[in-house]
User: Fold these one by one.
Assistant:
Number 1:
Amino acid sequence: MSYAYLFKYIIIGDTGVGKSCLLLQFTDKRFQPVHDLTIGVEFGARMITIDNKPIKLQIWDTAGQESFRSITRSYYRGAAGALLVYDITRRETFNHLASWLEDARQHANANMTIMLIGNKSDLAHRRAVTTEEGEQFAKEHGLIFMEASAKTAQNVEEVSSTLHYTPQLSFDSYYMLYYYQLFYRVLWYYAGIYKNCCNHIHKDSGWSF
């Protein structure tokens, strides 16, 4: 299927937090209970429409193992957004968020939108990280926050809707930059005409603009 624009997203976080399962829900709307560990990177795609334009969201699922971190870092380049995922039943995955966030902000575009996702909300009875802790971490670091379940699909569409909004921000930023540049090109054009005019008028007097 053809598309007008392509936006890249990356899913990051510790191994076993459910990144691949979230990707499967985003793209195929299904849950696979047994999933092999991601080796390197995998990706899926989803088509959306904004302002009657077909947009392709390309979502990259990265390996969470430390041995693949150097590979993961290369995929931050060009990403419009990132999903930073932890497992609400495993405290250590929450404790490692700062390290993942530091990586993302060091290797990605400074304007990249980052969304924090507390996955496996269907296992709330085994919760090791409170919702309030997730909210506080997101607030302190300027992230969007949501808890979700790749198994039951709880809030997965809401996460997806947030991804849909990010390209609109990119469009707005693009057009703002375009008109900003256009304004200054016109300004400098007329400044050049005015300068030449003044130099011509005052060439005998020795004045210059």
Note: Strands lie at 5-12, 41-50, 53-62, 79-87, 113-119, 144-147.
Number 2:
Amino acid sequence: MTEAQNLRELNERLGIDIDPETLRLSLTHRSYAFENGGIPTNERLEFLGDSVLQLVATEWLFHNNPAMAEGRLAKMRSAVVNTRALAAVARQYGIGDYLLLGKGEELTGGRNKDSILADTVEAIIGACYISQGRQVAEDLVHRFVDPMLDDAVNLGAGMDYKTTLQEAAADLGLGVVTYDITSEGPDHARVFTALAQLGDTTWGSGEGTSKKNAELVAAEAAVKAIREKHPDWSRA
């Protein structure tokens, strides 16, 4: 598949129509730029996209939670506007397949690094803003993060799934929370798998590029499983 076809395919996946030059720039990691004569990178678009993302998430939380205090609003926003959450968005849309990476970054698993994926999501948002305007960019952000914003509203006071899992275990008498961690792959591209266990029961599993990320994914799966089995449980 040619580069032009790749860019059209990514536009279709995202449901947008960013012009090819700007979309290509949003995918250009600094390692690729360095190896190709110092061409522009996606970092300026990332800077712009981060601002658009922050604004859209803030507006959504502000208007949908009129009685919520500023401190809790800020915690909910940080639960969504963070590297792990944005990397999950990138994986959902297969953005890693389209990255322009240098040879060294390619060899060390750059297509699956949370930091690179998250930065690229922000750069794509910035590219959409430049190419298609504010409204289209805001619509894209809503597709990316609205489900996570809904989840953030439903999380416990700790504003992360590991804390919420601890609270659920204590409230429902499900036992002590532990994580069983395994890993596979070479050091530069190791994948960790975590099982979230409450007592002797496994409630969720998850994979990540670090132990911490794998535990967070497993905790999220466990919290969702507990909510399905105990729909009346909640934490203010």
Note: The mean pLDDT is 90.
